[in-house]
Every structure is written in structure tokens, then in C-alpha cells.
UniProtKB/TrEMBL annotation:
Transcription regulation as UniProt keyword: no
Gene: glnD
PROSITE patterns hit by this protein: ACT (PS51671), HD (PS51831)
Entry protein name: Bifunctional uridylyltransferase/uridylyl-removing enzyme
Pfam families tied to this protein: ACT (PF01842), GlnD_UR_UTase (PF08335), HD (PF01966)
Cofactor(s) this protein cannot do without: Mg(2+)
All copies of domain ACT, residue ranges: 643-727, 758-830
Organism per entry: Streptomyces anandii
């Protein structure tokens, strides 16, 4: 039976004919989805039009009245148990006749047991009600004529749309607030095990709100995938209505298998993944659209004042640089005009890291341009790509929104193909509140708060991202995840030792909490079994932080003070079992001929001497830190940045002076080593400080070596006020809200060296950080014997071997005091 046949039968047979035709339509196995919804709407249109015509004829051919479908029925989205949203519109001529007509319309609908949402109004009353009730306004935007005076319907539609567009600056913020309140009540559709398809964030109500925004002509939602997402949710609701026989939008657990079968899907998990994917598209479209609405409304509010000041001119939007090829414009992160995505495969990660660090969203246009033009990163990744991934993961809460923007355009699965198996994967466990993929990102967010507790924050953050990656495969997810993590670690550029640590962390990410809560900790065999699995103190430290981050990201029921104390007790016992002799200060390698030449020249001239050269490494052997400038896939040695070697006659203040000059020139320090170098035989007695830096320009090109040397000479003789220059620059660029990093942590490493006191600093990397550390150590009257500085993502992990004026290690009380003062100095700045 075709849609026309059903329509005709309903008209010919009255309510009984409509009911029979409706039943046949809903039980036809061959028709579902949009065709069935359209046929059901057409069938209902014909029946209601027949009722209207018969009632109007009985009233003597009533004029100036029409029947209008609004809301979901107006859009033609009739699910099997949907309400009929109807408006009886009249010109106010004969209220008694209109009331009688309404009775003849509503009672047949009720007699069939159909849900009815009805009203009787004049156009003026309809507009007045809409002005005071946003939900009425939204329903009228979808008004569709069914029967009666067509001109009356057309005039109302025209007036309602004009009202909506005129009042959009006031009504759209109200609509946004309504959506936010609903999301707070109902949760996010893309993560719920028993979601409300209509009311939850990313559901059908939000899709309708996006249509209303588009109707305002103020902004529009990204269209790609949005119609398909809406259709899939409507299909699921249809199946839910048919399997339950009820007008419900909540997809409860006990009904998911039946709904999946009705839709021809493999199982309930496949159903939920489809729902989650659809909700994710709608949620992301909402985020982008509401940002655009806010930007347009802000521009409208500011424009009259600017025009008055500028005499009618249109000001160019401000663009503040964030990283190479990445700028901030109007509250979003966009690509610089000079960016060349097709030549820069690291750009998506660099842009994402910059956005997360600044606490800003990635522009939709920027993400789509990168997705369309950036070529994939070759394995192993260049060092810069790995560093930018770590920076993104360590940015805290802003990471989530930026990661979702990358996912929306398929960039995450392109960077990490194994991600596809866990994307939108439900977790049927009451303890878990997120899908697998969101849980992994949430774990990285939690782990970012623990980066000061570990010596390798980069390994902690990547382990957080990968610890449940095996859940996309059959069997024990920890065993599968170990294999995947090792492979991913190699692909993204970690060396073999680091890849082994990551694999161990993923394999044993449940070990501490399961052992602490299920085993006898007083049994030495328990402690030694954990020690054998973990292997080293540093891995134990990482596993402890990962365990807590994983539990906190799972849900409120997964972690407690009691569990935390049990795990901490186990860690203390295992740490004692692993304890051995601590390593002494690392012996520096023999200076190269070039370093000796610079040292001799510095001693003879009495001033600083430096050299700049590109630093490379072979593709098969990667260091755990550094910043690469090359495109992925290049053959032969790969540039890591620039190596800067500075030789200076031994004197106070060298470290802060050199670090400050580099900060003034906007050079990012990735690694640094400082050591005293005795001059070779045959040269006058003396000592030269040799500083070996790996640096990269924040954006733009590197300064000339001659200019760096000139500023270094001025800094050493006191004529260049480095602190003042840095303060001026900070004042010129007000701080963005950005990432809220964990506070700096400064500790004294116990018994780490027989010849010096080792002060360890873990802090958020920032311009001038090393300058502030060096100056604070100088103010404390300690001598830096050597320094080992590394930047892992956005985290600085530095070790300073210091002595007193006489060259001996500091007494314990003095060392603790120096560490406290240094930590206070760094915290005051943050």
C-alpha cells in the first residue's frame, strides 16, 4: 500500500479508517525511518483535514479559520507515539463557532487515544504568547498549514519569523540558557547508559534549537553530518516507541536489545555507539554555533561605539600569536595567514596544544582546513609532534573541548588509528560514567594534576591516554592494551626503554588498587610480586599516579580516602623493597673539539662566546625530549631544533643571565646542561662555564648569533635589565584564562650525590622560568655546579647540583630552606 493509498483510505473511512491505515503503516516491515515518518505525517494530515472540512461545513462554511501543525508534527517528524501539536487559528470573528469547531476536531483525536497538544488563538494572541514563552515561539517556527484559510497560516508564519529575527539578540541567549539548564538536568546523551533521546545534551531538542538559530539568520550550525545525526536519533525513537508501545524518549537498558533488533543492528552496544556518535555530532555543532552567536552578539554591541570612534571605519580583528602558524582571533584559535598546513604535518597537534594551553576553542574553519590538507605523520613521529601531544594532554580541563574538535573532523583517528576501536564505546558498568574514549581523556585531565609527583610527566600523560586502549579488542583489555601501547609508543617516537615503561604501565594499571584491596599487605610475597611486576622506582611512581587518575576519572564510586590510603601503603612497602643505592651525579661526556675551542676563546677574550647549529638525530634513535622542526617522513637525520653552546668565564650569575637573554629573544628552552669545564693543558689555569642548550623559536625565525652575544654581554655587565624587559612583555600581553597548572614543586633529592646537593624543580614551562630559577639560586648564595634541564610537553623537569661557597654540599637544613624559598618564588609568579 502506497502513502497515497493510505491517505485516501483514511479520508474515506473516518476515524476507523485512519486507525486501521495507521496500524498497517506502523507494522509494515519494509518501511521505516524518514519514509515512514513522512507517510505517517501525510496520513495524519489527510485525516485531520477531513475532520476540519466536515466540521467547517457543519458550521455553515466557517471562514477566517485554519488548522496548523506546529512543533515536531509541523516538521513532519511523527514517531509512532508522538503527540499531535495543533493550533486552531482564527481571525476572531465568531468565538462560539470556533469553539464548536475545536470540539469537533479534538474529540475524535482523543477517542483514538492519541496524545494531543492543542491551542486555539488569533494571530495576535499567538504572537503575544510566543513573546512570553520561548517554547511556544520555537513551536511556531515550524508551523505548517493543514486545512482552512491558507492566507491566515501564511501571514502568521511571516509575522512569527519576522518577530524571531528581530528579537534574536534577546531571545537567543535565553534559548542558550534553556539548553544549558536542560543539559544540567538530563546529562550528556553521548555518555549515558540510559539516555533520554530528546532532552539530554546532544539530543533532539538541541537539534531543534540549532534549526531555530539558523532561522534567526544570525548564525548557522555546521551542516556536515547534522541531518544524518538527527535522522538516526529519530529512527531510534521510532523503534523505541514500537517495541515498548509507549510514548517514551528514554532508552532504558532492558529495552536496548529489542530496539537494536528492530533497527537490524548487531547488539545493544552497536545501538549505543550509533546514538553516541549522533549525539557527539549535534553537541559539537551546538558548541560551534553558540560560540558564533556569542561572537556576533558581541560584535553588534561593540560596533556602534567603534564606528563612532573610528568615523565609520571597520577595525581589523586582533590576531595574537600563540605558536608557529597559530594565532588567537576573537576568542578562538585560528591558523596564521602564513601557515601552510600542507607542508606542516605537526600543525594540528601544535594548534591543539596552543589552544588547550590558552584555554580557547579551536576554530571550526581551522580544524576543517587542517583535516583537508595536512598529510599524515610518518612513523616514528618527529620529536616536536610528540612534545605537542604531551602538552595537549597535560593542559587539564581545556583538553576535552580541543580533543572533541579534533575528533569531530577525524583527526584523532588519523593520528592514532587504534583510537577508532574505543571511540564512542559504551562501558556497561555502573561505576563508569564515561564512554571508553572520554574516560581516557578524562584520565589524562586528572593525571595532569599529578605531573609534579613524577619525574617523567610525559610518560604519565601518554599512559593515561592509552591505559584502556585494549577495550576495543577481545580478551583481557590490559593484555591487549600492553601490545597496542608498545606499538603506539614506537610510532609516536618514544625510544625502546620508554616504550617498555608505557607497556608496563598499561599492562598493570589495575595492579595497585586490586592488590591493595584484595591481598594481605603484611605478606612479603604480595609486596615482592608487585615489585617484580613494576621493576623500578620511577615506574612505581608513575603507576601510583596513573592508578589515582584512572580511578578519579572512572566515577565517584571508584576512589575514596580508604582506597587511597591502602594504595599509598602498598606503594611505600614496594618502594622499600625496590630501594637500593641512589645514583651519583651523572658524569658529563668529554667535551668536543668545538666546545674546547669555544672555552679557550671565552677565557682569552674574557667574555661570552657562542655558536648556533641545527641539531639532528637519526630516525631510528629518538631522545625522550626535544622539539623537532622537520616534516614527518623525511629520510636521513631529522632536525630537532637548534643547539646553542655558550662558553663564559666562570663568574656568578651566568645561568640567569643566559636564560634571561634567551627568554627576551622568545626562544623556548627544551633541554639545557651547565657544567664547569677545566681548560686543556697548555692553557692558563682557569675554569669556563659551558652551557649546552637545545632551543626553538616560539614563532618566527631564530635571532642572529651576533645579536644574542651582544645582549649576553650587556646582561653580564648589568647594562641590560633582563627582569625589566620580561616584566614589560608580560604586562603588554595580559594573561589568558588558559590552563590551571598544578603548583610548582621543589624538593631536595636525598642522598642523590656525594659532591653536591641536588634540588629538583617540577613546574609548568613558561617564558623566563629558567631565568627566575637561576636568579633565585643566585640570591640564595649557592653555586650551581651543574644543571640538567628538560621540557616534557608543558612540564619542566629540572635538576640543579648546587654547593655552598666553599664547594661542599649544603647542610640539610640549608638545602631545605633553599628549596622552600625557590618554591615560594615560583608559586608567587604563578
Amino acid at each position: 500500500m502506497t502513502g497515497t493509498d493510505v491517505h485516501n483510505e483514511a479520508e474515506d473511512s473516518g476515524p476507523g479508517g485512519y486507525a486501521a491505515a495507521r496500524l498497517r503503516l506502523l507494522t509494515e516491515g519494509a518501511r521505516s525511518g524518514p519514509p515512514r515518518r513522512a507517510a505517517l505525517a501525510s496520513l495524519t494530515d489527510g485525516w485531520l483535514a477531513g475532520l476540519f472540512d466536515a466540521a467547517a461545513s457543519a458550521a455553515g462554511g466557517l471562514r477566517g479559520v485554519c488548522l496548523v501543525a506546529v512543533g515536531g508534527y509541523g516538521r513532519g517528524e511523527l514517531s509512532p507515539r508522538s503527540d499531535l501539536d495543533l493550533l486552531l487559528l482564527h481571525d476572531g470573528g465568531d468565538p462560539g463557532a470556533v469553539a464548536a469547531l475545536a470540539d469537533r476536531l479534538w474529540y475524535p483525536v482523543w477517542d483514538l487515544g492519541l496524545a494531543l497538544d492543542h491551542s486555539v488563538r488569533t494571530p495576535a494572541e499567538a504572537r503575544k504568547t510566543a513573546a512570553g514563552d520561548l517554547k511556544v515561539q520555537l513551536g511556531l517556527l515550524d508551523a505548517r498549514h493543514l486545512a482552512g484559510d491558507l492566507a491566515l497560516t501564511a501571514s502568521l508564519r511571516t509575522a512569527v519569523l519576522a518577530d524571531w529575527r528581530n528579537q534574536a539578540p534577546r531571545r537567543l541567549p535565553e534559548l542558550r540558557e534553556l539548553c544549558a539548564e536542560r543539559a544540567e538536568r538530563q546529562g550528556e546523551l553521548q555518555y549515558l547508559l540510559e539516555p533520554d533521546l530528546k532532552e539530554a545534551r546532544g539530543g533532539l531538542r538541541d537539534a531543534t534549537a540549532l534549526r531555530a538559530v539558523a532561522a534567526s539568520w544570525l548564525a548557522d550550525a555546521p551542516r556536515e553530518g547534522l541531518a544524518d545525526a538527527r535522522r538516526r536519533l529519530l529512527d531510534v525513537r521510532d523503534a523505541l516507541h514500537l517495541t515498548t508501545g509507549r510514548a517514551t524518549d528514554r532508552l532504558s537498558l532492558q529495552e536496548q536489545d529489542q530496539v537494536a533488533a528492530e533497527l537490524g543492528l548487531l547488539d545493544a552496544d552497536t545501538l549505543l555507539r550509533q546514538v553516541y556518535e549522533s549525539a557527539r555530532v549535534i553537541s559539537y555543532a551546538g558548541d560551534v554555533t553558540w560560540r558564533e552567536v556569542g561572537r556576533v552578539l558581541r560584535a553588534r554591541a561593540v560596533r556602534p561605539r567603534l564606528r563612532a570612534m573610528l568615523g565609520g571605519g571597520k577595525p581589523a580583528p586582533e590576531r595574537s600569536p600563540l605558536a608557529e602558524g597559530v594565532v588567537e582571533q576573537d576568542g578562538e584559535v585560528v591558523l596564521a595567514r602564513t601557515a601552510r598546513p600542507e607542508r606542516d604535518p605537526v600543525l594540528p597537534l601544535r594548534a591543539a596544544a596552543a589552544a588547550a594551553q590558552a584555554g580557547l576553542p579551536l576554530s571550526l574553519h581551522a580544524v576543517r582546513r587542517m583535516a583537508a590538507t595536512v598529510r599524515p605523520l610518518a612513523a616514528p613521529w618527529p620529536a616536536e609532534a610528540r612534545e605537542q601531544l604531551v602538552t595537549l594532554l597535560g593542559s587539564g580541563r581545556p583538553t576535552v573541548e580541543v580533543w572533541e574538535a579534533l575528533e569531530a573532523e577525524g583527526l584523532v583517528s588519523r593520528l592514532l588509528p587504534d583510537w577508532e576501536r574505543v571511540r564512542c564505546r559504551p562501558q556497561r558498568n555502573a561505576v563508569h560514567v564515561w564512554t571508553v574514549d572520554r574516560h581516557l581523556i578524562e584520565t589524562a585531565v586528572r593525571a595532569s594534576a599529578f605531573t609534579r609527583r613524577v619525574s617523567r610527566p610525559d610518560l604519565l600523560l601518554v599512559a593515561a591516554l592509552l591505559h584502556d586502549i585494549g577495550k576495543g579488542w577481545p580478551g583481557d583489555h590490559s593484555v591487549a592494551g600492553e601490545i597496542i601501547a608498545k606499538d603506539v609508543a614506537g610510532r609516536i617516537g618514544f625510544d625502546r626503554a620508554d616504550a617498555d615503561v608505557l607497556a608496563t604501565l598499561v599492562r598493570h594499571h589495575l595492579l595497585l588498587v586490586e592488590t591493595a584491596t584484595r591481598r594481605d599487605l603484611d605478606d612479603p610475597a604480595t609486596v615482592h610480586a608487585v615489585a617484580r611486576a613494576v621493576g623500578t622506582q620511577s615506574t612505581l611512581e608513575l603507576l601510583h599516579a596513573l592508578t589515582e587518575a584512572d580511578a578519579l576519572a572512572t566515577g565517584p564510586a571508584a576512589w575514596s580516602t580508604w582506597r587511597g590510603s591502602l594504595v599509598a601503603d602498598l606503594v611505600r612497602r614496594v618502594s622499600a623493597a625496590l630501594a637500593g643505592d641512589d645514583p651519583d651525579e651523572p658524569e658529563p661526556g668529554a667535551p668536543s673539539a668545538e666546545q674546547e675551542r669555544l672555552a679557550v676563546e671565552a677565557f682569552r677574550t674574557g667574555g661570552p662566546v657562542l655558536s648556533l647549529r641545527a641539531q639532528t638525530e637519526p630516525p631510528a634513535r629518538r631522545e625522550p625530549e626535544g622539539t623537532g622542526d622537520a616534516e614527518g617522513g623525511a629520510a636521513g637525520p631529522e632536525p630537532l631544533g637548534v643547539e646553542l653552546v655558550v662558553a663564559v668565564p666562570d663568574q656568578p650569575g651566568v645561568l640567569p643571565c643566559v636564560a634571561g637573554v634567551l627568554a627576551v629573544h622568545r626562544l623556548t628552552v627544551r633541554t639545557a646542561e651547565l657544567r664547569a669545564l677545566e681548560l686543556p693543558a697548555g692553557v692558563d689555569d682557569g675554569s669556563v662555564l659551558l652551557l649546552n642548550w637545545r632551543v626553538a623559536a616560539e614563532y618566527g625565525s631564530l635571532p642572529q648569533a651576533a645579536r644574542l652575544r651582544a645582549d649576553l654581554v650587556r646582561a653580564l655587565d648589568g647594562s641590560l635589565d633582563v627582569a625589566g624587559r620580561l616584566a614589560e612583555r608580560d604586562a603588554a600581553y595580559p594573561r589568558r584564562r588558559g590552563v590551571v597548572a598544578p603548583p610548582p614543586r621543589v624538593t631536595v633529592a636525598p642522598a642523590a650525590s656525594r659532591h653536591a646537593t641536588v634540588i629538583e624543580v617540577r613546574a609548568q614551562d613558561a617564558p623566563g622560568l629558567l631565568f627566575r630559577i637561576g636568579r633565585a639560586l643566585e640570591d640564595a648564595k649557592v653555586r650551581v655546579r651543574s644543571a640538567h634541564v628538560s621540557t616534557l610537553g608543558a612540564n619542566a623537569v629540572d635538576a640543579f647540583y648546587v654547593t655552598g661557597p666553599a664547594g661542599a654540599p649544603l647542610p640539610p637544613e640549608e638545602a631545605a630552606s633553599v628549596a622552600r624559598r625557590l618554591e615560594d618564588t615560583l608559586r608567587a609568579r604563578t
